[in-house]
Structure formats: structure tokens, C-alpha cells
Amino acid sequence: MNPLIPTVFSADPSAHVWPGDDRIWLYASHDEPGTNTHDTMQSYHVFSSDDMTNWTDHGRVLHLDQVSWASSHMWAIDAAYRDGVYYLVYCAVESATGMFRTGLATSDQPQGPFTDIGFIEGVEWGQDPALFIDDDSTPYLFWGAGGHCSACRLTDDLRAAVPETIVDLTPQLKWVFEGPFVHKYNGKYYLSYPGLFEDKWPEHMYYATADHPLGPYTFGGEYIPVFSGQAGTNHGSIIEYKGQWYAFHHSMWVSHMSECRSLMCDYLTYNADGSIQPIYPCTIGVFNLKTGSDKGTVTILLDASVADRTGGKFSGTHPATQRDGYTGHGYCTGFDRNEKGVTVLIQSCIDRLGRLSIRYCAPDGDVRMKVMLNHVLLAPAGASERLFTLPQCNDWQEIELCTLALKAGDNALRFYCGDGGLDVDYFQVSEA
Ligand code: FUB
Q: φ, ψ for residue 164 (rounded to 5)?
């Protein structure tokens, strides 16, 4: 169903399937609700699915405040996997020069959170990066903005451009404006990009093909024309998942504001000669791979052990990994006094209801906790006392706690007031 992710404004989707993993992963930039300018963009989200219509929002995985060299414009991104490390490849304006740089951030898990390791040396005005690792493991970087597109080979550690390989692909990419993405199909390299037909907005999606990642490229044509409700920009990625090809892109179908965008997905079909058939985005979008339904949900999954790196914080609590069976990086523990707790960030693009669940372990007995959303204490349904009881359990269990009235923007969920013996794996917010 389109928009694919109607719960949080996100754009510039970069889709990947990682080795040995059954899921499809989307790395996307984040638009702030209520603004209509790209200047306010300052973070990224990761989404995953194993059926194409039910998606998990893994929350805010990198923020401008966590990037020491950058001052603004956390714009389009890509991701890569190399030697056991997941890379978020993003762009931001460098404080020292005012120039767009291509940043690298790493994680040991595909959902992040990501830790910045600096920008790629030798890439100037590196807006809208795409990192393509070829079958022989050679890494290539593509970037582009303002009507230009360039590419180069990267050093093996991905930290620098190999200067003598930098090429200006602009003359080979008709109407190119920004946002390159590279995929491979039947031995050919496909460079897809947003472009301005006759230099006029809005953007169309075009592609070109080559026998080598660095070209020369031959223009292939338009594969997503301008459509009703388009955001002005478009930007996307193309991927095969479980035997089917998909084109991810964005629209303004939720907000009707060009800079509050929502992710979209449509089927992509090749002709026998390798050319791509035009896509006309529709609300049905793509179907569930298991059930055949076009309906889906978005569930927010917040790993309590990394709350402090995803927009929340620990208040006297801390992450731990001793107890087996946790799902992400670990769990949060140390709720041993009244004031101790954990806060997680829930981002939503509209005012809406969500159902809050928690996965926890409480081996020493029932635990009574307080839950506060945006500084308001919540009560269990039908109860007058604002305390939630987590029943004793010797192993991890998930229970639903209450309904949340989320507001558009940032929501702080604080969970506190324990009396010991509690470990929290994750918080989950499902559609109500
Ligand atoms: O999302 C911010 C900017 O808008 C991207 O960097 C461009 O590709 C366009 O989608």
C-alpha cells in the first residue's frame, strides 16, 4: 500500500538486502513535521520488513548532534555492508567549510544505531551519496546535486576517494539533477537518478546503463514520470527482494507539503532488452509476499539498551547483556529506585494513537512502574492509580501496557519507578 510508511515523514529511501539476512532494509532521511523546508533535516530512520507490507520502524538511528564535524542538512543517504560492519553513508554540511560532505557511520547491526566515523576524504560537495560495492568487493561512491553527478573508486576501508578515479558523469546522464543510486541487473550497471526535464521542476526519475560502474553510461529513459502528489523532489533506489524487483521513492501523499515526505514502493519491471518499464505510482503499491494483501502496518521497535543513542536517555539505569535472549544490542537494567528509569524517543508525523507494549523480564516478583508520555503520567485502562504492574516472569515476555496519544513530532516516553529485579528489552508501538 502507498505510502509505504505513513507514520513518520521520511524520504530518499535506500533499499538493501544484506548477506545472510531474510529482511529488506530501508535507510531514509527524516523530514520534520510542520516545517516545509529541507534545511531542518537532522536525522535518519531505518525500516525493515520480511513481507513488504508490514514494516518495523527502528527509530532515529543517527542525529546531527552526534556528528561533530557537521552543522546542518542531514540529507539523502545510502548504506553498505563490508566485513561484518554496516555503514550508513550520508551527507551533511561541514561546519568548517560550509561544504556538503559525505559522512560515514558504522554499526554492528543493520538497524543501527550508527556511530559517525568522519567524512570521506577527497569528496567535495558530496551531497546524495550512493555506495556501490561490486561483486569483486571493489567499493565505488556516486554523489550528485545541483545538476551534477560524479563517481569514484574508494579505498578498501571506504574512508577516502581514490583521486585519479574521480569522473564527472554529468554529460552522460541526461537531465540529471541529484540523488544517484546504482544497482546491477544481468551484468549491467544501472545508475538511477532524479532529473529535471528541460531544467524544470518537479523531478522525474531516470536511469542510464553501463558495462563498468564508472561508465561510460548510456541514457535509458524515464522510469517514474511526474505523478499527482509528487513532492517536487523524488529520490529512490531499485532492488530485487525474494525474486521481485521494486522501486522505492517518495511522495507528499500524507502531508501535501513538498518537504514533509513519505516513502513509496512500486513494482519495477524490465523489458527483455533490459530497459525499465515506466512506473505510475498508485495507492495499492505492492502486495504482501506471504498473504497477498495490499494492507500493512508500521510498528515502532525501540531497543531499550541503546535509548541514549536514539534520542532518549538513561536516568540512573544502564545497558547490560548478561541475561540471554534479548533481541537487539542488549537490555536496560538498574530500575532499583523510585527515580530511576529510561526515556525513549517516538517520532510520528501526525497526531495518532499507538498501542504500547514492552518486552521485559522480572524474575523476582511483580514490578510496578510508571509510564509518562510527554510529561503526562498514564494510567492502565480502567484504573485510577497511575501505576502499571509487570507480572513476575522468569524469562522474557511481551505484554501490552496502554494506548498512547502520540503527537506529530517528537514524543518522549519515560518509563520509571522500579523496585529492582527488572530488565527491559524493548518498547514497541503498534498501530491502534
Ligand atoms: O532529502 C533532502 C534532499 O531532497 C535530498 O538530498 C535530495 O535528493 C532531495 O530528495
A: -70, -5
Q: Give strand pairing partners of 16.
A: 25
pLDDT in tens, 346-375: 999 999 999 999 999 999 999 999 999 999
pLDDT digits (tens, 9 = 90+) for 266-279: 999 999 999 999 99
Ligand 1 center from residue 197 Cα (angstroms): 17
Provide the β-strand partners of residue 175.
Answer: none
Q: How far is the CA of 88 from the centre of ligand 1 (A)?
A: 16
Nearest CA to ligand 1 atom 8: 179
326 DSSP 8-state letter = -
Distance (Å, whole) CA 146 – CA 100:
12
Nearest-atom number in ligand 1 for the CA of 31 is 1
CB contact burial 188-197 (16+ within 10 A = b; e otherwise): ebbbbbbbbb
Between the alpha carbon of residue 192 and those of residues 30, 152, 217, 345, 412, the distances in Å are 21, 16, 11, 34, 38
Ligand 1 center–CA 37 separation, angstroms: 11
CA distance 76 to 128: 5
- Give CA–CA dist 123/372, Å, rounded: 45
Structural domains of the chain in order of their starting residue, each with its CATH number: 10-295 (2.115.10.20), 302-431 (2.60.120.260)
